[in-house]
Design brief:
24% strand, 6-stranded mixed β-sheet, 255 residues, 14 strands, globular, alpha/beta, Metallo-beta-lactamase, Chain A
């Protein structure tokens, strides 16, 4: 059986995720923006937290880690490269690392760009990828520390995952990301449809994440910088993919 997934809204627009293996009872959380909603979800499902997985060092993803560890006794995993600015790690990870949640092994993917030490977690059997602020729903994270080239390379790694992989990203930014995407591809029918679906979900107070990688490949401009239509849309028909990606990211920063 695949891991069970629970999406937990936190703060004003963050998400944490619980993943649970029913056979072993092992339960992990990905990122800890705040403690209360996570403890409430654990209680509602009658699960015991065993592991805390950290994607990157920003406060809105780690500020509840120490309190949650104290409350649950969970082990904390995070990037070895960022160990100096993360809560104390029980297991320091890099791209060669592998670990398991219950019966399923996770792959660690280095995805610098938003931060230099950002990592993602891929659970291939359950078809889950926890990408936080690297690949986001309809977008990607701002380049606070890394370069556009680094982010583009990171997104190419994620784009190579199976298209039915669920992308579990870190924020409810989908509507604004797609509004920007529509300035580049106003006639993209899949994008038009997605915008309508997102508006309906938000009107009902429902999260717009996770979403399949296939949907992202069809609608997320940062995964489409190689396409002639996108290159033409930003006035760079003959440019390389990284140059086009850089222009798209710069436009979004001013959007």
């Amino acid at each position: 059986m695949p891991l069970e997934l629970v999406t937990i809204p936190c703060l004003t627009d963050n998400y944490a995720y619980l993943i649970h293996d029913s056979e072993s009872g092992q339960t992990a959380v990905v990122d800890v923006p705040e403690v209360g909603p996570i403890l409430a979800a654990l209680s509602a499902h009658q699960w015991r937290l065993s592991d805390i997985l950290i994607t990157h060092h920003h406060d809105d993803h780690i500020q509840g880690v120490d309190a949650l560890r104290e409350a649950t006794g969970a082990m904390v995993y995070g990037a070895a490269a960022d160990a100096h600015r993360l809560p104390k790690l029980d297991l320091a990870l890099d791209e060669s690392s592998s670990f398991s949640i219950g019966r399923e092994f996770a792959r660690v993917i280095d995805v610098p760009g938003h931060t230099l030490g950002h990592i993602a977690f891929h659970f291939p059997t359950s078809k889950l990828a926890f990408t936080a602020d690297s690949l986001m729903a309809g977008g990607c994270g701002r380049l606070f520390e890394g370069s556009a080239r680094q982010m583009h390379q990171s997104l190419q790694k994620l784009a190579a995952l199976p298209p039915d992989t669920l992308i579990c990203s870190g924020h409810e930014y989908t509507a604004s990301n797609l509004r920007f995407a529509a300035t580049l591809e106003p006639g993209n029918p899949k994008l038009i449809s997605r915008i309508a679906e997102v508006a309906e979900k938000r009107a009902q107070g429902r999260p717009t994440v996770p979403v399949t990688l296939g949907v992202e490949l069809a609608t997320n401009p940062y995964l489409r910088a190689h396409l002639p239509a996108l290159k033409a849309a930003v006035g760079l028909p003959d440019a390389d993919d990284v140059t086009v990606f850089t222009e798209i990211r710069a436009r979004k920063d001013k959007f």
